[in-house]
């Protein structure tokens, strides 16, 4: 009896797995379209409107800077303790 030296076939090696995987990704991705804003999206809106003392539209992920005046304003009016 000859030994089979080929690697075992896995279910995800099949080309037929691609379409169900893409379908699952599409279904999961579509659910986020109706979710609305969350978490830091509101800070990004404030930055775009010019109401956030730190950052600019080109620095959306800079939530706190090194300026003592800017930090003092955020501590007094905003989310930082």
Q: For the report, how would you describe the main beta sheet?
A: none
Oligomer: single chain
| Separation of the first and last Cα atoms | 74 Å
Counting DSSP H or I runs of 4 or more residues, the number of helices is 3
What fraction strand? under 5%
What is the strand tally?
0
> Which word captures the global form?
elongated
Mean pLDDT: 78
Keyphrases for this structure?
81 residues, mainly alpha
Task: Write up what this structure looks like.
There is one protein chain. By secondary structure, the chain is an all-alpha fold. The protein is 40% helix and 0% strand. The longest helix is centred in the N-terminal third of the chain and has 13 residues. The protein starts with 17 loop residues before the first helix and ends with a helix. The model has no long low-confidence stretch (mean pLDDT 78).
Which SSEs are present, and which pair or pack?
Blueprint: H1 18-30, H2 41-49, H3 68-77
Please sum up the structure shown:
Helix content is 40%, strand content 0%. The protein has helices at 18-30, 41-49, 68-77.
């Amino acid at each position: 009896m000859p030994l089979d030296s080929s690697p075992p076939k896995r279910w995800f090696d099949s080309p037929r797995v691609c379409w169900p995987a893409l379908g699952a990704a599409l279904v999961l991705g579509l659910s986020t379209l109706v979710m609305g804003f969350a978490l830091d999206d509101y800070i990004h809106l404030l930055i775009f409107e010019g109401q956030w003392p730190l950052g600019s539209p080109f620095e959306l992920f800079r939530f706190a800077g090194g300026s003592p005046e800017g930090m003092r304003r955020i501590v007094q009016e905003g989310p930082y303790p």
